[in-house]
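In the laboratory, one determines a bound structure by crystallizing the protein with its ligand and collecting diffraction data. In a computational setting the workflow is compressed into a single prediction: the sequence and the ligand go in, and a structural description comes out. We illustrate the idea with NDP.
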Amino acid sequence: MTDPSEKSFLDLSRRGFLAAAAGSVAGAGLASSGAQAQQPENLPNIPDDAVGRPFPEADLQMPLPPDQRLGWCVVGLGAFALNHVIPAITRSQTCRLAGLVSGNAEKARRVATHYGVPDARIYDYESFDDIANDDSIDVVYIVLPNGLHAEYTIRAFEAGKHVMCEKPMANTVEECRAMIQASQEADRKLMIAYRAHFEPHNQRALRMKKEGAFGDIRLVIGDTMRPLDLSRPRDEWRVLRDLAGGGSMMDIGIYALNGTLYFLEESPVALVASISNPPDDIRFRQVEDLVTVQLRFGSGALANLSSSYTMNENRIQILGSEGTGLLNPATSYVGNTLYETGSDVGTRKVPVQDSSLRQFTGEIDHLSRAIIENFTPDTPGEMGLRDVALIRAIYASAERGSWVELNPDGTMRG
Ligand code: NDP
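The predicted complex, in structure-token form:
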């Protein structure tokens, strides 16, 4: 996986800018910077009145100029879109908020006013397809309930736009396949918004694993849970099977699942799962509460994962022959923390400079860069399909009460 902070066209723009700046000062006879810089023989000759100076050696990333930024259109102005997606678009260095799609015209107008989106760029679910005629929109970010992801992703591709789709990719494997096919037919990028891949503590843990800090990974334990609260509008659709596709495993268990595969860098060959619902709880008439899963990998590694809508936990632990990495919390919006335990270090908090907040702009800038530089995003539709297939296999195993064997794409064998 590429760390967006390590290789960026923004760096290239900056280098170009620096080269131009160095060229412009060379004629003025000022010493240019460089690794091999010689000590000047004389004291610097700088006039003592106000004067322009060379571009500093700051490690700043130059944002894309406004006219080169990609226009992003957000579909579904719910809790996640308003609190995280739109603010991240405004913080990003590669895009601008170009359009809004909402079924609530008054809310959309209020949001548009705050973010400077013209009225003409506000769409609803009926006029959505008109974005095909809107050249200011390059990318559509789908932040709708899971059961609507496939329809609006496919319609966005038919309108000729690139798509960022929230997790889980869709309710079914068939929908995921149709989304990938639509992306290919339109020759447009499809990325699934797995923000943890762009979260600095998760990235650091993966780097440590690749560098051998934990030795051979034998076991991953992941528990991702949060109480489902029907007094909040954003949790209402989550108890309806058609809109949510499933319960805690679809919504938050997917973090433990996707994180496990991210750290092990392989797909499981078999799994067994169990589901338990509190009796007489209205929240769990159509979707599940507690899920436990054991996964077996070709390397011999095992994983034990759990998800729930009635407890609160967010941790992923990577256990190897030489040490243990613990992310706790692992996939929060802010404040994720990484610990390392090993025979020579005891247990220590691993210093990570960047804030967890970078995950939101990180994923957005990553897709912009994938579009501009024409590469496949690190979290493509195929990854989203694999995870949806694995969750369907988890549900099948729990229903059968037995192990299921898996294909490399996450679907069940046989
Ligand atoms: P919300 O309920 O807060 O927002 C969903 C929005 O979708 C609504 O506000 C509404 O927008 C629109 N919508 C259209 N049709 C319906 C419908 N039938 N029922 C409900 N809403 C509808 O949900 P979230 O923001 O929490 O979740 C949206 C998506 O984002 C989900 O796929 C979820 O999994 C994902 N998500 C991802 C997170 C992450 O960390 N990556 C965190 C939270 C959610 P409008 O009123 O504008 O039409």
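The CA atoms of residues 49 and 340 lie 54 Å apart. Keep in mind that any predicted model is a hypothesis to be tested, not a measurement.
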